[in-house]
TrEMBL record, chains A, B:
Annotated organism of origin: Thauera aminoaromatica S2
Listed name of the protein: Pyrophosphate--fructose 6-phosphate 1-phosphotransferase
Pathway this chain belongs to: Carbohydrate degradation; glycolysis; D-glyceraldehyde 3-phosphate and glycerone phosphate from D-glucose: step 3/4
GO biological process, one term: fructose 6-phosphate metabolic process
Binding site for diphosphate: 13
Catalytic reaction(s) noted: beta-D-fructose 6-phosphate + diphosphate = beta-D-fructose 1,6-bisphosphate + phosphate + H(+)
Residue(s) at site: Important for catalytic activity: 139
Main location: cytoplasm
Example of a GO cellular component annotation carried by this entry: cytoplasm
UniProt key word Cytoplasm: yes
Keyword Kinase assigned: yes
Binding positions (substrate): 140-142, 188-190, 246, 295-298
Catalytic-site annotation from UniProt: 142 (proton acceptor)
Enzyme Commission number(s) from the entry: 2.7.1.90
Amino acid sequence: MRQQNLLYAHSGGVTAVINASAAAVVAAARASGRVGKVFAAWRGIVGVLEEALIDTAGLDEAALVRLARTPGGAFGSCRFDLPHDDGGAAMDRLFAVFDAHDIGWLLYNGGNGSMDAVARIQAEAARRGHALVCVGVPKTVDNDIVGTDCCPGFGSAARYLATSMLEAGLDTASMVGSKGSVFVMEVMGRNTGWLAAATALAAQGDPDRAPHIVLVPEARFDEAAFLARVREIVERLGYCAVTVAEGIRRPDGSLLMEKSRDARGYVQLGGAGLAVARRINERLGYKFHWAIPDYLQRSAGHWLSATDRAQAEAVGRVAVEYALAGQGGTMPAIRRLQDAPYRWDVVAVDTAAVANLERSLPDGFVRADGLHVTTAACDYMRPLIEGEIPPPVAGGLPDYGRWDWAPVARRLAAWQA
Amino acid sequence: MRQQNLLYAHSGGVTAVINASAAAVVAAARASGRVGKVFAAWRGIVGVLEEALIDTAGLDEAALVRLARTPGGAFGSCRFDLPHDDGGAAMDRLFAVFDAHDIGWLLYNGGNGSMDAVARIQAEAARRGHALVCVGVPKTVDNDIVGTDCCPGFGSAARYLATSMLEAGLDTASMVGSKGSVFVMEVMGRNTGWLAAATALAAQGDPDRAPHIVLVPEARFDEAAFLARVREIVERLGYCAVTVAEGIRRPDGSLLMEKSRDARGYVQLGGAGLAVARRINERLGYKFHWAIPDYLQRSAGHWLSATDRAQAEAVGRVAVEYALAGQGGTMPAIRRLQDAPYRWDVVAVDTAAVANLERSLPDGFVRADGLHVTTAACDYMRPLIEGEIPPPVAGGLPDYGRWDWAPVARRLAAWQA
């Protein structure tokens, strides 16, 4: 019996464990005995359109292990949504590529937008009477996919950020001077405050420990209340540590990150963290330091959450099971069975029901004054950052993989977007 | 025989291993059997002036182990230089505190400025015919103390930054798009480029790996040459990763960090990294991400260099030996005996000979075009980031210490600066 091929692709921002999902997909597909070749697209859905495929047969067992522990997206990524207004040209092209390479299964790793693509591609297959089975693999450091208790990628970023706030908080506390010191860390999160909230784990329940304030997009930024709280903390402790999600907004809904004005009225382009830090300095006179970990927070393979990596592997493995079982249009989701000790399993979710939705911090996770998160938020997040899985080290640095992919020969004319 | 007391203090910016030196001082002083009480000053030399002393007797063996692995300065720190123009008031006060608490030995942990204080305090003791012995303990992430092959604190910060560049480089490579992507990381280093240079270890000798460009204060920033190089790298690889030391300067000697102008001529206050990233965007049109690890780079106790920590402990332990041997005005320095395998020992250096000097990257460590560092620089730095020493973890976070210090009763009137 002819075996069809499986195609894996990932899109959107990468994570520290996205390759663990990829490696699990490859391993599960091989182990099934039912899959011919396991292809990966170079640069996500754009790579499918461009027929830029990689044959993962070149990865031996040792290379798969190495892939699973390497942060970043080994097969590249892209920021591209399948168009709705191209008369079906992109969709036609996808199916032409599937047919040209005998793709029976498409596994698509991504966030909310990618789950929309999964639902649309599966619906298109049904419309065409095409046998393609398309299954989603959830992933995002933002933790904002609906239908899953958490998202692979979040736990490791959360662990990195909580550790960073713990360490920088100790540093800031050391540097307490007579004038008051403030440390501000800006973290990712344009629309949701999950990563900002994660830094609250550093305080371990003690209101005197960093971070003393956590600003999330779910609460409007009330400058007067914020500054009053900073002053109160500095007057009590001598210093104050603040986490700022990049997407916090003023009461009128405008983003702090877009622009702010300095004392002379000049427009200052810069992040929300810098804007907040400058405002503290202007209004309260405190010295400030600020950090923006940016990509560091989503690529810290040296400090993974073992729980997160296990979940990234599980959704990859189970996605192959769903695909081979013909459960197109689904995505494996993490279900929480118990908080402590933490127990979880994987269940199937219909991507059409969750696509393009966005999961914000629930009301019970944001403190009423909008300046911190609650114990309930910490209880939810704590198990997600647990478990050690240090990387092998060579020469003082993590021993990550590097690949030179050989492209699969193209069978179609070049794609014109 | 009456045993005199020993006083330990640390000043200036803290490091991830400064407490390892402190713990080694306490342990060595206890083990000597020749020291009465081991005091620590709260907030460095300011704490001595303010007679804010802590009796470390409260730290049992387990607490000392915990102290040694906790980043930040457990006894606080300060940025304060002993004045030259106060008619000797501060010096008088220091000796009054020494006498009030029967201090026979002062161990002062810090950088160039602190070594100046060590030399001056020892000279003052000689002038007064006072028996005090003052010994320095070198420390700085900047690695700029003269007379020592490297500075405790640098190796761990270097390891953290090289790992961060390695990981963020993988992330940036994943996100390669059609428009070119640039990642800029701004690291500490107002006057010297040691920490920026350390990120070059991430490339492991491969010019195609991040960082592709390293800008250090020792080379003037030639914008045209820099932009040409960025363009060349992006055209070849699709992306480019750049390390920027905060203190880089234009050919006229002005700091980029102080101000730059946007396309409309507005003054933009911000760091050198942001200024460089914006310039790339304005002139070349590439998308950019930028990071500023700030305090994270000097407090990453979760990813220490074991070599660095061993050296931090050694200088603390040996400083006690020098003190007890009456070698006032010295500091223990690291001497490199061999590159590979790395071997080192500790030798005495006269603080008066090195005080207030600053060790820049030597010419042979900066590439002739000023856009990267050399193989010789990497060969020098590589052993300093080696060796694993992961912290114990509780709840997913490093299990660091916290202390509530009980102040020693004051015996003098309050200090009026």
